Amino acid sequence: MSVSVLSPTRLLGSAAGLLQVASLLALVLLLLKAAQLYLRRQWLLKAVQEFPSPPSHWLFGHIQEFQKDQEIQQFQKWVEKFPCACPRWMWGSKVIVNIYDPDYMKVVLGRSDPKNPVLSRLLAPWIGYGLLLLNGQTWLQHRRMLTPAFHYDILKPYVGHMADSVRVMLDKWEELISQDSHLEILEHISLMTLDTIMKCAFSQQSSIQLDRKYQSKSYIKAIEVMKNLFYSRVRNFFYQNDIIYSLTPDGLRNKWACQLAHRHTDQVVKLRKAYLQDEEDLERVRRKKKLDFLDILLFARMKNGSSLSDKDLRAEVDTFMFGGHDTTASGISWILYALASHPEHQQRCRQEIQSLLGDGASITWDHLDQMPYTTMCIKESLRLYPPAPIVGRELSKPITFPDGRSLPKGIHVSLNIYALHHNPKVWPDPEVFDPSRFAPGSDSHSHAFLPFSGGSRNCIGKHFAMNELKVAVALTLLRFELATDPLQVPIPLQKLILDSKNGIHLLLKKLV
What we know:
Elements: H1 8-47, H2 71-81, E1 85-91, E2 94-99, H3 102-109, H4 117-127, H5 136-146, H6 152-177, E3 182-184, H7 186-202, H8 216-234, H9 242-246, H10 249-275, H11 279-286, H12 293-299, H13 310-341, H14 343-357, H15 372-384, E4 390-394, E5 399-400, E6 406-407, E7 412-416, H16 417-421, H17 462-479, E8 480-484, E9 492-494, E10 498-500, E11 505-510
Parallel strand pairs: 2-7
Antiparallel strand pairs: 1-2, 3-11, 4-7, 5-6, 8-11, 9-10
């Protein structure tokens, strides 16, 4: 009697054979991947050979050079040794060339290289492909579409909204310091700047700072979670894979935070669309000479006559909701800390503002250009503590720098604005707070000071941001005397936005 072709023996033999074939195939694929990574590393070594850096491990890169939360301090040592640019190996097959020289910056920012695609991919689930992450003609089209939202005729009335939001925050501070003069200011300022951007760009009528039921605090918390997770993901080799990351606790937290942020922005769009359903309100908005940011998006027509898709609309709203409040909150917080650290400059600013505004009951657009010393102090604070410390690019073609060194197409470069602003070759005694660096007539390189980046892709809202910084600083100094808390000195962290490891704590004293 013959043995059945489906006998257990035959099945086991076939399974073993398949297992051997699969194992061999996996080994071949592994060897091919190893060869690919080896060749990639050799190419990178050759590509950056003109740019020295401290020794790195062939697999772990410079990870041992950078202790957690000490990246800024460690990198400053590199800046002193390598004053123009320096490669940083993230791991064996990934290197980023950090540049922090004005001439180098000018060359890169004068080109149209795309944003770093790896960083863009990691950010996209959060803010989508809006103006921050777009490239090429699509970016140019969106930039041209949105530029009218920042025309000075639009920005003028915003000063009143900014002042209202700041006063609400300062009133809350008065209540809080009646019990204790110690205050962590960053969270309060984040809520205030979110309040401001909601009023100015998204037509919000009431103050979210006064609405206890409003979910803005949850939104701010979600933003903080996503910033921290992005910071850790960029530095983790295994987290680069989307599938692996989505299965980790960090990946699940990131998904939750993204959903929370998207619900917030979706609600903003939904409310504005509902408002515009009324024909009278719609016609009233259309008659405006200049449209607000959100109205421009809702009324936009692309070259083919179609309106923005819901996906593109939300991407721009997410981008500006984040960029319009978080970077500004960072800037204001660090400026107030810098002034608290230097009482002589704080007092001189206060005297200037008092002579201009009196008790500050009214602050207008025209006042903003009449506080030169305060503006100098704001700029010096932005030099020391730039809100956006790093900008990434991928070279779309070879580049040659003024000193003759070059990099090939495909290399990732980091425009390290924090390192530029603290480069002793560019700024003598860079850690010293010296507002005279920005005195009228002072001579400095056009690309030595880049708090809002530079070139064609500079921050579209830079004038809006500077106005808000001036309003916040002026009204705060009229109300409070600021001092540092010696027990809680902030530790700068170079994340997506310049953060502090332990918050920004000040001692506030109400002025009579």
